[in-house]
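ok so for the tutorial part 2 we go from a plain amino acid sequence to predicted structure tokens. step 1 is just haveing the sequence, like this:
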Amino acid sequence: MSFMSLFSRHSLMIALAFLQSTLIITKSQAQEILTLDSCRAMALRNNKQLGVSKLKQEIALNTRKVLRTKYLPKLSALGGYEYVSKQVSLLSDDQKTALSNIGTTMAGTTPDVSSYITSLVQKGLITMQQAQQLGGVMQQVKTDFGETTVNMLNGLGQEIVDAFHTDNRNMFAASVMVRQPIYMGGAIKAANNIADYTEKLAAQRSESTLQNTLYNIDQAYWQVVSVRQKERLANKYLEVVEKLDSDVQKMISEGVATQADGLQVKVRVNEAEMNVMQAQDGLVLSKMLLCQLCGLPLDSEIILADEDKENILVDSSSEDLSIETALDNRPELKMLQSAIDISKEATKVVRAAYLPHVALTAGYLATNPNVYNGFQRKFGGVWNVGVLVHVPLWHWMEGEYKIRASKAATGIAKLEFSEAQEKIELQVNQCKFKVKEARKKLVMATKNVEKAEENLRCATLGFHEGVMTATEVMAAQTAWIQAKSQKIEAETDVQLSKVGLRKALGILN
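step 2 — the prediction. this is what the tokens look like for a chain of 509 residues:
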């Protein structure tokens, strides 16, 4: 082979190596390396339940602002139009007729005085001659009551009827009213206190959701790290059993091993391949869960900062905080305390409904027709100021029963608070015990790994020297992979138990 051909092959190999390295770099750049803190930040930024909690806080804030306005006066305006088929009449039909014909009536009326004059004559009070003269005077008065006077009186009567005409079939009304509560039995103050506690409750629920989110993201993160470590372990185990299979096949070809030995090793190779496949599938699913919690697409290519480390970094610091830390920081207890406060204020609201209420009112009312000026077809109005007092007198003990029921609800909230304190205390103690137990298991698992590695080294050496069988080597390999797997699980348990303890203490964030 010529020198040029060797040079060409060498150049081609260099080019292929460069292209392969370029592809590896491009692929690594496309993948996103995430730390635990970055996963937490993305989860808090993209978690939908946290978004819901923030919106609930906004609702509570605006509700509190609404109730603050109950202390202030309210100004309202009212206007309307109404058409009625009949108008209001201050005179009856008979009165209208009499007034319209008052002149005619007076002209046509004959004074009934003849019998009266005759009785005066009979009593001797006047003479017959005087009676005749008086009758003549009355007849002259009747004669002098002419048509002009009759018409004048009729017109005067009609003017009186027209003056009483209301013309209210088309009615317009407008009013402006100011209402200022003075004393509402303490209901306004209690309602504002409830709004304050509700706002705090919304913030505490948001804190609880935040801690649950962090707890879930920490669990998912360390779960991915654990599965990744087990995948690497499965690949190493596959390499070991494949190396053993290769050695056994050589021994079979040389006649120092049997086909049965080869088949046993083949079975272990198949089991190792199955373990690798299961670990890979588990890693994909674990990363999908982590992506979902972080708000990333499920098929995102992510790499965790701790997943390729030889050993999972275990924090050696201990959580020696007291139970009081949990009682001061747990959002669940704060929420229950807020529920107690809200229940107490609700009792005050119930009691206020059965106490006197006093309010000040002031306003201006205008109508057309103007009822204050003879139903004139113009707008006319009047100012008014008043005090409204409402005093409940008797409700057959309804208020007392409602107050008792509300106090019973407060008692229930207090009992739930006390029970929650006991459960949290128990939970903190359990988490502390789990942390200690996980640390002990890690120490034991680390020692077991050292022994299993030494055992595997001796078994492999003995197999190569011909003093140990393939079965003994496979037993050593099984013990080695079990010890390594237990160590990975112990490291993960330490991390998760510490996360659980911090959550139990209320200091996870």
